Amino acid sequence: MALTGLEIYKQLPKKNCGECGPPTCLAFAMSLAGGKASLDSCPYVSDEARATLESAAAPPIAKVIVGAGENSITMGDETELFRHDKKFYHETAITLRVSDALSDEEIVARTQKINDLVFVRVGLEYRVQAIAVENASGDADKFVAAVTTVAKNSGLPLVLISDNPDAIAKAIDIEGVNKPLIYAATNDNYETMTKLAIERNCPLAVKGDNLDDLASLVEKVVALGKKDLVLDPGARSLSRAIADFTQIRRQAIKKKFRPFGYPIIAFTTAEDPLEETAEASAYVSKYASMIVMNTVEKAHILPLLSWRQNLYTDPQVPIRVEEKLHEVGNVTPDSPVYITTNFSLTYYSVEGEVEATKIPSYILAVDTDGLSVLTAYSDGKFEADKIAGVMKKLGLEEKVNHRNIVLPGLVAVLSGKLEEESGWNVIVGPREASAIPAFAKTHFA
Amino acid sequence: MAVEILREKSRASVPEVTIGATKEEGGTRTHTITVGGDSALPFHHFEGEIKNRPVVALEVQDIVPQWHENLTKYYSDVIDNPGQWAKKCVEEYGADLIYLKLNGAHPDNGNKSVEECVAVVKDVLASVGVPLIIVGCDDEQKDNELLVAVAEATAGENLLFGNAEQTNYKSLTAACMVHKHNIIARSPLDINICKQLNILISEMNLPLSRIIIDPTIGGLGYGIEYAYSILERARLGALQGDKMLSMPVIATVGYESWRTKEATLSEEENPSWGDAEERGILWETTCATALLQAGVNILLMRHPKSVALVKKHIDDLMVSNNY
């Protein structure tokens, strides 16, 4: 909840000294409200006013960074309960578990498998973000050995899971381990764990037995001076977790309840890997910033990462594909050419159906600023001269021997003008993409 | 430290819709299925009542569909016999409802006569005790003729018929009125049209408690997030008292999932995507579990293993999480 310029102005010294840059305190307040200035430029602001302003300006959910460098993960800094109100910002970090009870070879193999969880679909690259090494053996040396092996074989950030602060302290010192997430401070060990996290400057997970317990524990940890935290309310069943995560998010955003103003870590519990994936998908939907899970199969992780990608897209920005001549199948100069817009939903609907025709084809995606066919047409972004221009620009003439293009049925009205502008024969296609297979059967089979 | 639980008060709830009628109620179903009645966001047992669990309908067609082998292998012994197919879905795969698509009536798919279709419906009714959802073949003209006849032939069964659309809702609405069935109001991923269609249908005096809405979904990876947000907005509206957005929701999860290449491409064709069948099962499952969180009440599905996974997931979500 950002303050307005006037609210900020009330807290300023009102000296109008101009030492901060802007000539008056009011002008400075306006710059602050717009995020264009920092309170540090005011030499006279009182400590009390500074505390008030900083807490009002703090995001409802803190931003927490795990790891360092290009693989580091940003979690939290969310402002919404529902994506349609604005957007969700930082994608749930999918974190795969490696137990130190495994043999060294098994750990190497599993780490490699995790490294390979990179997928390319619809022109995007999907990745998992972290590896959680778990001290399942209870043995500090084994834990250190496991973390050493994982760090040697992967550049992904780590989560160190152990209730033994000494084991964690040793693991942090291993080469290649950089700002891991320490899991976790509990009622039994929070003083040592918090001290360790402060000393080594690592983010710290706090695990409570329930919401009340978690809130108390967070306050204790914060009182010790640690502020980059990740929350685990201890829920280990799907329904309880959904409720707890919803409460944490709600309390943070609607009430600015400080103990819950941190990102959430979830743990799957289902043993069957397919059930586990289903469980994880619900945590992606319901506010988990990190999910620690077991399955490392590509077929399980791809659907999950796809859902995450979909959920975290910005609802106000249409997703687009590149304006170009896309090829579906092994095209030849005789392949049919379909025209559509570059709104990704439109484009991929068309692409899916064109693929289903089993006839290699071209799809010309015209840049309409990511608008669908009808919207683009009514907005003047999908006109005959423009389409003809794009055909020319992309060299359609050289790609195919024929001079036929298929126009979406919704803009059949453009066909005459387009024939005139382009000199090509325009075939009016179906109104809906789903009718393309039947259409292709009669026209191109 | 006691945390004060935040409970959102709802002003209204999703109406309950009951599908099917037993012998005592004038039909032949062994039991009925009731959906809706939610007075809180999905699975927020801590602040309202999630009266009825979401249900899963398995799809059966009157002609052998051109489905992927990873689906058809589960139905190969019954796929040319809608009655037996439906029976297998219920008895072996745990379908709560059967979703019967009369695809063979389409002029391009064999153009089955209305009488033939009615016979298929009767066969399926005789084979299973669960209520049916019946949809046409997506040819407006044929559907109007077909669905009216099926609605008449199944009068008293209190089935669910689809799809009524903005440009074509009158004849189906009238048939559902006269023969006492429920209707699916389908709108194209647009919350305003969704609302408008509900108004149009209820202006013909079909009670709100007999409408199920299908706001259309995009599949996972193909626009599911648009559907997710529309469903969330509609449900929030419903709980705030917007009656014309309040009905229970049906989602065509199986159809949208199994036409994607992610669900069907073999591992040989794309090794980096992993095992094809498990990927397909989870593509459909994830589409379902994602939409459950936005408020879907009836899931239309195809793969028996996805159905098992989703039903288990729903069991887990229906456990009370009150504080």
Number of strands of chain B: 10
Give the number of DSSP strands of chain A: 17
- Work out the helicity level of chain B: 25-40%
Structural domains of chain A: how many:
3
Beta-strand level of the residues of chain A, as a percent range? 15-25%
What's the architecture of the largest domain in chain A in CATH terms? Alpha-Beta Barrel
The CATH C-level name of chain B is Alpha Beta
Q: Which CATH first-tier class of the largest domain in chain A would you pick?
A: Alpha Beta
Give the H and E element order of chain B. EEEHHEHEHEHEHEHEHHHEH
Q: Averaging pLDDT over every residue of chain A, what do you get?
A: 94
* pLDDT averaged over residues of chain B: 96
**SS-based structural class of chain A?**
alpha/beta
**Which residues of chain B form runs of ≥5 with pLDDT under 50?**
none
Let me know the largest β-sheet of chain A: 8 strands, parallel
Q: According to CATH, what is the topology of chain B? A: TIM Barrel
Strand order across the biggest sheet of chain B? Answer: 8-7-6-5-4-3-10-9
